[in-house]
Fold this protein.
Amino acid sequence: MITCLALPLFLVVACAAAQFEGYHGYEDLDAYKYKAIPHQSLDEHHEEYDVDYHAHPKYSFDYSVKDPHTGDNKEHWETRDGDKVKGSYTLIETDGTKRVVEYEADDKNGFNAIVHKIGTPVEHPIEHPVEHPVKHKPVKAFEPNYHHEFSNQGFDDGFVPIVGYEH
C-alpha cells in the first residue's frame, strides 16, 4: 500500500526536478546577451525625409457610382486651394428623391452648405406576409405518475418520487 502512494509522489518530484535541471536564471538566455541598438538622433536627419508641413494645400477629386444592381447612385467632387474648400455631392434618397448638397468652407465664413431636394417622394407600400394559422397537434397535459409501490416504503409525509418526468 505504501508503495502505491510513494510511486506517484516520486514521479511528481522527479518531473519537477527535471524541469529545473541546469537552470541558472535569466543570465543564460540568449535574449539578454544582446545590446540595444541606438536609434539615430534627430540632429542627423537626411534631406530626403524633409516634409514641409506648412506647404500650400491644393487638391481636387471627383467620383461617381451608378450601380443598377443595388440602386446605388451618387456623385461627389471637391477642390481645395489653401484654406478654401468647395464641393458638391448628390445621392438618391430612399423615397426616390435626389439630394444635392453644395458646400464651401474657408477660414473666414466657416462651413456653409446648401441642400436641394429634387423630385417628389414616392411612398413604397410595406408588404407584410400573410400569416397562415399554424396547426399544432394537441399537447397532452402533464399528469404525475404516482406508483403505489412507493406508498409503503417509509418516505416522509408529502414526498413522493416523480416517475416519468422528462427534461
Observations:
- Helices lie at 2-19.
- The chain has a mean pLDDT of 76.
- The CA atoms of residues 40 and 46 lie 11 Å apart.
- The first strand starts at residue 58 and ends at 67.
